[in-house]
């Protein structure tokens, strides 16, 4: 039985583990795809080691869902042509169909118009460079950036109007479940994948078992499947950050996630 939304993992959840250990844990837990992070497991630059990791993923039956880059997050000087090409070399070596990018951290929906315009133009350049290599760009949906709110993310997406630009989504821990679902509803026509976790109001410092997100995640997964944008391959619920960084907790979280997907009838 193939789930329409598949369980996956963001590799940065286990930054302290080697790539092979992350892959082994993913297989043990039963996830079907990984977004490999650029900061710990798959550095920019491509090369034989990245190609070998891609081969091991294929052999294990685990899709490479996305490449989690940090393009766009820092100062504009970090996104010169050489840096972008280096990221895209790893994307190609992995065989990833998608590149996660950021909007500049510290420029928010409340920032001056000039700053927001600068970030919009910068995002356009990144999306076009990624599109030139035949890949989809997916925005990180994150507090402290221009994608902190669905309304601001929507404005950015519609202003740029790029055929290869999507957005990931994750819930703001400060929002009630109904409000988080309303945010997701706004961006689902541009949705790539969902970063899936259960945190308390303190955010990453209050990580909980995924089962504690019962009031949010079954409905969010159904909404994501109903109205998500077209993608190359399946849409994934990518587990990100688990309680106590515990591999056993991750295995339990994936068990919960698979049960919710099955109960929602998210099958093909």
Structural class by secondary-structure content: alpha/beta
Q: Mean of residue pLDDT?
A: 95
What proportion of the residues is helical, as a percent range? 40-55%
Named CATH architecture: Alpha-Beta Barrel
CATH H-tier superfamily: Divalent-metal-dependent TIM barrel enzymes
Biggest sheet: strand arrangement? 1-2-3-4-5-6-7-10
Query: Main β-sheet, in a few words?
Result: 8 strands, parallel, barrel
The CATH topology name reads TIM Barrel
The CATH class is identified as Alpha Beta
With helices defined by DSSP (H or I, 4 residues minimum), what is the helix count? 8
Tell me the Rg in angstroms: 17 Å
Give the overall form: globular
Low-confidence stretches: none
Walk me through what this model shows.
The chain has one domain: TIM Barrel (Alpha-Beta Barrel), CATH 3.20.20.150. The longest helix is centred in the middle third of the chain and has 20 residues, at 113-132. It is of the alpha/beta class. It is globular and about 45 Å long. The chain has helices at 19-29, 48-60, 81-94, 113-132, 150-160, 177-187, 217-227, 247-263, and strands at 5-10, 33-37, 63-68, 98-101, 136-139, 165-169, 191-196, 199-200, 203-207, 235-239. It has 8 helices and 10 strands.
Would you spell out the secondary-structure blueprint of this structure?
Elements (H helix, E strand, L loop, with lengths): L4 E6 L8 H11 L3 E5 L10 H13 L2 E6 L12 H14 L3 E4 L11 H20 L3 E4 L10 H11 L4 E5 L7 H11 L3 E6 L2 E2 L2 E5 L9 H11 L7 E5 L7 H17 L5
Parallel strand pairs: 1-2, 1-10, 2-3, 3-4, 4-5, 5-6, 6-7, 7-10
Antiparallel strand pairs: 8-9
């Amino acid at each position: 039985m193939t789930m329409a939304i598949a369980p996956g993992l963001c590799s940065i959840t286990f930054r302290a583990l080697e790539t092979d250990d992350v892959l082994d844990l993913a297989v043990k837990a039963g996830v079907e795809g990984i977004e490999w992070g650029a900061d710990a497991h798959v550095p920019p630059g491509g090369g034989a080691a990245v190609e070998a990791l891609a081969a091991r993923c294929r052999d294990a039956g685990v899709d490479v869902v996305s490449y989690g880059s940090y393009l766009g997050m820092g100062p504009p000087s970090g996104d010169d042509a050489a840096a972008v090409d280096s990221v895209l070399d790893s994307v190609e070596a992995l065989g990833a169909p998608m590149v996660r990018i950021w909007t500049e951290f510290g420029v928010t929906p409340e920032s001056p118009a000039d700053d927001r315009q600068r970030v919009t133009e910068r995002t356009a350049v990144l999306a076009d460079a990624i599109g030139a290599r035949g890949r989809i760009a997916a925005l990180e949906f994150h507090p402290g950036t221009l994608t902190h709110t669905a309304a601001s993310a929507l404005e950015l997406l519609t202003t740029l109007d790029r055929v290869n630009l999507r957005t990931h989504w994750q819930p703001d821990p400060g929002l009630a479940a109904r409000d988080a679902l309303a945010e997701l509803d706004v961006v689902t026509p541009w949705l790539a994948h969902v970063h899936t976790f259960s945190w308390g109001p303190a955010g990453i410092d209050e990580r909980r078992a995924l089962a504690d997100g019962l009031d949010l995640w079954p409905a969010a997964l159904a909404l994501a499947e109903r109205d998500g944008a077209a993608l190359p391959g399946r849409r994934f619920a990518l587990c990100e950050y688990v309680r106590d960084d515990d591999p056993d907790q991750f295995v339990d979280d994936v068990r919960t996630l698979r049960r919710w997907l099955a109960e929602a009838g998210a099958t093909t």
